[in-house]
Amino acid sequence: KKGLDLEGLKAETAFACNSLLSMAQRSLREELNVQEIEGNYSGSLALMERLRFMLEREPALKSRSSIEPIEGELLELGAFFRDGALDLEKALDSIHSLKWKSRELKKKMDSKIEELLVAFLSKHAVVSSQPVSGIKLGAEFEDCKTVEFVNPFFHWDKPLSLPVQFAYDFDGIKAKSENITSFEASGNTAIVQFSRVPEGVSFVEVFSTGIVSLNASERLVRLDPEGAEIELSGKIECSTGISGLQAELSLATADLNVSGLRAFLDGRSVPVLLKDSSALVFLERAEPGSELALLYVLSEPLLIEKELFSRREIDENLAVHEFLVSVTNRLSF
Prior knowledge:
With 333 residues, this protein is α+β, with helices and mostly antiparallel strands.
């Protein structure tokens, strides 16, 4: 009976000691805020998996940045852990430095992911123009451009700012993904602010209001009594390409008959009709800076009047006549 009592006492003592040790360890872990170190370490492990996934998915990012230094830091920190928990016996003397190292390591990994995301999204951003069609020369139109960002990796739930090539002026934002908080352009670059970057496509659509115009001038190509050939030409001024552009251009006819009307866009013949003293041109496609030229002939541009000024007889077979001839240019130039 005494032997049984002794064995029971040993068991009770061992249980009490283990319980006391567990309580002491819990108290020590709370006092030293071990959970912060463990949280930073587990967070760093998850971030490292994301970094490796990014580099596997987009190998071109490897040439931009190496993760070997932070992989080494993660291995050093991992030496103080066992089964995901901090080993207090190993870590007790270094607990304060481990707190700092775990915080800094997690910050470095956050920064590295942001760096790679910015590099990828900036490089692969796609700028496209919405089609503009059926506009008349001199009319106002809305030019819309869309910038798309594709994140093929994972949802990133932190704010991100990145530059993108965007050489356009705009009046405002027409539509955008709700995670894009701002889009500001200066020069050839726009700065995009994200509240977060979800996996998949984010976009912003901006617009500007413009007028398509033709800075045209006329010149005299040829002038003789039978006709005057005139060229009217100029560059189309607009912010984007336009399909189905309609142009009605007044001709300097001076009430003279028009013939031989032809039209050219960047040297290529295009359809043209004569309506009263105007040319109607329909362009399937016109780009900014395209040159439009019209050639036409005005009949009898010179008014020639002849009046006998004097007559003098030399003999019965010969007489000298003097005439006053006046030539009037009926053109405006």
